[in-house]
Amino acid sequence: MTAVRRSQSAATIIDPMRRYDPRWLIVFAANLLLWWLAGLVNNFCASFAVHFYLGGLLVVYAALRLDRKHGLIAIVLTGLLLDAAEPVPFGTSVALLGLIHATLLYGRQQFPREGAVFGIVVALLANLFLVIALSFLLVGENPRPGEAWLRIFVDLLASQFLILLVAPWFLALQDRAMALVQIHPETGRHVVL
C-alpha cells in the first residue's frame, strides 16, 4: 500500500517536470520568420545592389531573455540556418552567434534585459561584429578586394538602419509570442494573463 502511494506521489512530482517548454522553438520560429522576410527584402532590393544582413538581431532575444539552455538551442539552430543560407564554411555562423550569445550571457546580469532600447543597441553592435568578422573571412575570395570593402560598408550602413527600424517590432513579436503561450521567457513558468 505504501509502495503504491510512493509511486503515485512520485508520478505527480515527475509529471510537472516533464511539461514541454517551447521557448527555444518560439525564438527559433521568430528568427526563421525574420530571416525569410529579410530574404524577401534582399530579393526586392537586388536591383539596387544593396544587401541587408540582420544576423545581430537574431541573437538578442535569446541571449538577453531566455535561460542558458533554451537560448543556446535557439542560437545553434539559428546558426545552422544561417550556415545553410550563406556561402561560409560550415559552423562559422554557429560559432559567431555562439560567441555573441556567450558574451551577452556573461554580463547580462548588469544589463537592462527587458527594454527595447538596450536590445536595439545590442543588436546593432552584434551585427557590426558579425559583418566585420564575416567580411574578413570572405573578402579574400573576392577577385577585387578593394571594391568589396566599399560594398561591405554600404551594406553595413543599410543593415544597421534596417535594424533600427525592425528591432522594436521583432523584440515585441517575441515578447507577444511568449505571452500568447503564457510562458515567462526567463523562467519558463506558466503565466496567467
State the gist of this model.
With 193 residues, this protein is mainly α.
Can you describe what's shown?
By secondary structure, the chain is mainly α. The longest helix is centred in the C-terminal third of the chain and has 36 residues, at 145-180. It is elongated and about 55 Å long. It has one domain (22-180). The chain contains seven helices and no strands. 28% of the residues are buried. Helix 2 runs antiparallel to helix 3, helix 3 (55-64) runs antiparallel to helix 4 and helix 6 (116-138) runs antiparallel to helix 7 (145-180).
Query: Approximately what portion of the residues adopt beta-strand conformation?
Result: under 5%
What order do the SSEs take from the amino end to the carboxyl end, as H and E?
A: HHHHHHH
Helix percentage: over 70%
Q: How many beta strands in the DSSP annotation?
A: 0
Q: What about the largest sheet?
A: none
What number of structural domains do the residues give? 1
Count of alpha/pi helices:
7
Cα end-to-end separation:
41 Å
Estimated structural class: mainly alpha
- Radius of gyration, whole Å: 20 Å
Taking pLDDT < 50 over at least 5 consecutive residues as the criterion, the unreliable ranges are: 9-18
Q: What would you call the shape? A: elongated
- Overall mean pLDDT stands at 85
